[in-house]
Amino acid sequence: MYIRTRLTLWFLFILALMLATFSATIYQLTRSNLLGWVNQDVRHQAAVLHATIHLCPASATLCVPQLDVFNAPDIYLQVQDLRGTILASSGNLGKHTLPLLRDAVAADQVKEVSVGNMPLFVYGQPVVINHRLLGYIIAARSPQTVYVALHQLNQLFYLGVVVAFGLAGLAVWLLVRRAMLPLEYLASTATEVAVTKDHSRRLSPRGHSDEISRLAYTINGMLQALEDSYQEVQKVNDLQRHFLIDMSHELRTPLTVMLSSLDLIKKVGATDPEFQASSLERMQVEAERMARMVTQLLILARSDANVTAAHEPVLVRDLVADICRQRHPTDGVPTLECRDLELLEGALVWGNPDYLKQLFLILLDNAFKYTPANGRVEIVGSLHGGTVTITVADTGIGIPSSDLPRIFDRFHRAENARFQSGAGLGLAIAQRIAEQHGGKIEVESELDQGSRFIITLPLL
Ligand code: ADP
């Protein structure tokens, strides 16, 4: 059922209740007032008549005056003695007699009885003269005019209630319909947005700033949020697609190198032991690269699932020195210098050695990746109070200042780094590892001058 129908029905129900209560109260009040007045009048007529009755001087009977002097068409009077003989009655009674209701007389009450099919309010009063009961006055009055008036009032109420009901219902229906129009407009526009999938479309609130326009603004806010999340999801989807392409490419390259090396070893390896040794070494490098990449993916997946690796005390110096040793100088890559590592002698951190190694390797790999062959990469260690700091610096391409704030976001890659393959995950993982160890990574960089990544870890 429509809201407007429900509202109208509710309104009519309440109106009906109010009108019925109001009409019934007015009717009852009027009825009891008018009948009370008839009641009083009957008593009054009896009292006036009583004052005129006296004992006849010659006999001990009652002398009753001419009753028609109290003439009024709807007042009936009758005087009777104790034996019930009617001594006098008003002319409008004709041949009817008024009944003497002894119980009502004893209780001094006015009773409604029917005399010759005519309803009458009857009141009987004893006639007592010189302390002697000599007879009764019976006064009656017809309530007919009162009943007619009440009947008309009743009809007026019925008519009034029906008319008021109809008019009010119509007025409420129209008003509610008018009030609902902006809502219908909002609903149809929202439906259009849903059907056309045009997320950029907005509702335009009409008229005053009321609840409905507030609703329109709220829906607009919701649409904006939906559009933002939709675009965010699209972006993540794009990034993941690129990530998959990059990852497959990254994994395929070392595999191709390894396969061709194996092929060559098979063909000429037996005859050329030197070539065999260098091929095996190349394969090892590629296999290590692949293993690193897979480890990175694993770390990311685990940190997303909030799985923390087992921690133990780790000697930072040994860890960094190991990495420096692995990176022996080769042709076509920048030089690597590891300085001041002796300052880290005995420095222990609480962490996972594999993850920490991964963290330094990511930064070192990046430094090599984004630094030209004639450049320089250095790793410097230092201790400050309760922390150990390792700086990985290079003289490479640097990071544009506009990219610096987002450099640790997943999949984010600066424009000037696109010449190298990569998925934009390394720094996100490195930062995650540092945070998991209670530390942090900061970056300073200048375009075409070089970058400096500073890792700070709390000492055990
Ligand atoms: P990837 O290197 O695979 O692109 P990373 O998360 O390791 O992903 O790095 C994100 C981005 O940060 C890189 O694409 C590059 O733009 C920038 N970056 C990281 N390290 C360096 C660096 N040493 N020199 C210049 N740019 C860097």
Main sheet characteristics: 5 strands, antiparallel
Mean pLDDT: 88
Number of E-state strands: 14
The percentage of residues in β strands lies in 15-25%
What is the global morphology?
A: rod-shaped
Task: Give the C-alpha Rg.
Answer: 56 Å
**H-E order:** HEEEEHEEEHHHEHEEHEEHEE
Count, helices: 8
The poorly predicted ranges are none
Binned, the helix content reads 40-55%
Biggest sheet: strands side by side, in what order? 4-3-7-6-5
Structural class: alpha+beta
| Bound heterogens, unique | adenosine-5'-diphosphate
Query: How far do the termini sit from each other?
Result: 71 Å
Textual characterization of the structure:
With 460 residues, this protein is of the alpha+beta class. Helices cover 52% and strands 19% of the residues. The protein contains 8 helices and 14 strands. The chain has a 5-stranded antiparallel beta sheet. Strands 9-11-12-14-13 form a 5-stranded mixed beta sheet, with helices on one face. The model has no long low-confidence stretch (mean pLDDT 88).
Question: What tags apply to this protein structure?
Answer:
single chain, 460 residues, alpha+beta, five-stranded antiparallel sheet, five-stranded mixed sheet, 8 helices, 14 strands, 52% helix, 19% strand, binds adenosine-5'-diphosphate
